[in-house]
Amino acid sequence: MAVDLLNIEGLEASEHQGPIVMVNLMRFRDRSLDGQGSGWDAYLRYSALTVPMIKARGGTLLWTGQAKAVALGPQAGNQWDYVALVYYPSVAAFIDMMTSPDYQTLSDPHRRNGCAEHVIIATSEAYSKFKAV
Q1: Burial tier of 34 (Cβ tally within 10 Å: 0-12, 13-18, 19+)
Q2: Is the pTM here over 0.85, yes or no?
Q3: What confidence tens digit (pLDDT) does each residue in 107-117 have?
Q4: Rounded distance between C-alpha atoms, residue 58 and residue 97, angstroms
């Protein structure tokens, strides 16, 4: 599988039912591994292909922004460039997208080319002012 660090077992073991928000933390490469611009450029190519896949599964991009500074906690290892909050109607919808042939062959190569590191944290809602859909 192209998405070699995807924790399907952990996601399924959580037995979470209902909507989920994925917190994406990204650190970009200075240069895209494919030589086509910066890591940010590769991430923009990734986003253009991936957002329609998210929407096709009932999800949506809730919020994105530049990470400015670690406000609390250790600095080492926590310098991120970008943060994205992505809503999915279920864990199954997320897994379906991430394991789809289109994601693996079209989108994921751009993510790998652009991101030096990409961590996704699955969260369930306790409180929100966001209206996801």
Answers
A1: middle
A2: yes
A3: 999 999 999 99
A4: 11
- The residue ranges of every structural domain in the chain are 8-123
Tens digits of per-residue pLDDT, 73-120? 998 888 999 999 999 999 999 999 999 999 999 999 999 999 999 999
β-bridge pairing 82-88 and 60-66: antiparallel
The CATH fold of domain 8-123? Alpha-Beta Plaits (3.30.70)
DSSP code of 87? Answer: E
Beta pairing class for 115-123 and 20-28: antiparallel
Q: Six-digit token pair at 2?
A: 């192209």
DSSP-based three-state secondary structure for 62: strand
* Helical H segments across 39-79, by residue range: 39-56
- Please report how many Cα atoms fall inside a 13 Å half-sphere around the Cα of residue 96, on the Cβ side: 13
Phi-psi domain of 29 (left: phi exceeds 0; alpha: psi -120 through 50; beta: other): beta
